[in-house]
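batch_manifest entry 22 of 60
target: D-(-)-3-hydroxybutyrate oligomer hydrolase
source organism: Polaromonas hydrogenivorans
requested by: lab member K.T.
priority: normal
notes from requester: please return tokens only, no post-processing; we will run our own comparison against the previous entry in this batch. if the run fails, retry once and flag.
--- input ---
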Amino acid sequence: MTIIIAGKNTLTLTSLAAAVLALGACGGNSDPFESKNTKPAYLGAVAIASYDGASDDLLTAGLGKTGLGGTAPAVADPLKPTPAELRRLAIFNNYRAILDITAGGGYGTLYGPNVDAKGVVTTSEGKIAGTEYIAYSDDGTGRQNITMMVQVPASFNPANACIVTGTSSGSRGVYGAIGSAGEWGLKNGCAVAYTDKGTGTGIHDLQNNTVNGQNGVRLDAAAAGKNSIFTAGLTASELAAFNAATPNRFAVKHAHSQQNPEKDWGKWTLQSVEFAYFVLNEKYGDLARDGATHLKKLTPSNTIVIASSVSNGAGAALAAAEQDTQGLISGVAVAEPEVQLAPDARLSVRRGASVLVGTGKPLYDYFTLANLLQPCAALVSPATNAFNTVNAAIAASRCTALKASGLVTGTTTAEQAASALAALVAAGWQPESNVLQASHYSFATLSVGLTYANTYGRFSVKDNLCGFSFAATGAAASATPNAPVPASASALATSFGASNGVPPTIGINIVNNLSAGGPLLDAASLSAGGVQDYNIAGALCMRELATGSSANAVRVRQGMSEVVRSANLRGKPALIVQGRADTLLPVAFTGRPYFGMNQIVEGTSSKLSYIEVTNAQHFDAFLAFPGYPERMVPLHRYFIQAMDMMYANLKTGAALPASQVVRTVPRGLTGLVANPIAASNVPPIKTTPAAADQITFANNVVTIAD
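--- output ---
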């Protein structure tokens, strides 16, 4: 018998075998027909830990459903927490940070460790045994040190293989997606591929020159060298000068790494999948002929991979799918994605009488607008705003300052506040967000905007951009009220387990270095003439970086241009779920235009459905705050359903739902207490929605059911 090669030459099987044997003899047991499992070059040393599912586990760090819903786990020595204690704190805090963990809100009934993969409420604590692998991805400089983690549950079946990505939301560390993509993946027997995407808990205490190691333990920066999560890029002389001029300050990785990591969030997410394949093939692959390496048993051809997560992690999943040239990702299911598109006049989005044209908008653009207007707008209905902590007198001064700058109209504070709120709605915020603007200003807007100003412009901590810095501040009753002070040693020691990566966090606050009379906590700082107006000069400076022509603005807009996505998902099946009242990442700037641009770019090849949920907003954890639980339902319930539907589609070919509005029912109040949530409050996504609930695309117009 012969084999014909290229129609010309012939080889007998005997001679071909002899040639292969000769190659093996020359190559030291290498086999050209073996597909060997090799560690990606960008990965550093891999730390491996196994958990029994009783004393410790992958999902709850041994705390179980009850522990996650209780008080924070204790640390034996708060000044010297162990890596295990830091991990437990990180899982506890990150799980609770993105979910409502109140029983009345659905924890333990609609979701939670005790609710199994089929949605059945059990008496189990939900602990999941398995193995955890952690490594850095880096280019050799130690300046990137992207933390990667793969969790492989004991229930993983290589004959039914699946991988779920869990890129962290916000600026969180590597455990940031533990309660979203992590929980779903582990419950369904999938390996979960996590990454902190170059953000995470990298806090450099510049005064004492200490940093976080990969396992969270605080280290001397010099001793840590290239192995810290983050060390600010300052020379010894620069550090000394900075500390002399601005003592007790901090550099934080997302803001100050000078890497603009968001441009590579898709890359890091794809790398996490590659790490997962490496781990799984080391664990399950047969030994190669050399007796040392393993073969690639699991590949994209026999493994389901769902790119997932929420918020920034969701945006990273979409970016990964757009950039996936190797076919690593099978499908996408995400919630409330932070995804940025260049405004495109071809696209219009219609909801009722409202029509917005070219509505993709850069995050930094709309955050700096919100940062200016929200405190003034909060005065429209202060008594009914959800969790309103905006100081009315300071907010009124902000209204006055906005009027002086020509940014609002009206002669009275009430008229100016109404003008500010109207400007937000005109820009694209939905009317359903009106009562949420105040709480978002207090807890999110400035912190996110300032972080992104720094990261997009690749500014160093020494630049003190727009006069801002990060520091602990004195209590109101202290000798130095609101002024920078040394941070709590125990808070720093446990920072890996408690920080969200974006000050204010672990007692590190935002400081206005330019406050009249000296640096003060930004919210309490003094503008010219001693007026408190939430630092209008700082807010205007940040806005100029988005809209102006200064050298710093040019730097920021360059960084902004690097994170724009294409909306081309390469024909992959995809589901996006988002709350209509999302006030952090409004649907008009994110989910809606992404859906529309995907239809324009992919045309009939598009397999993306967009699900918009009424009475849902960005932060499920806010549902525990006054004014939220009676109005809003957990979006997490729909994230779970989207994951279930995507998995069924990829596994069995089950139909994906058409784009639609899901109409939920608020819980309401009995007296002053929110009613317990019921299934009737959160009806399911329908495969085929009623005509009145459909979201459609035709002639470059997205029409949203009102």
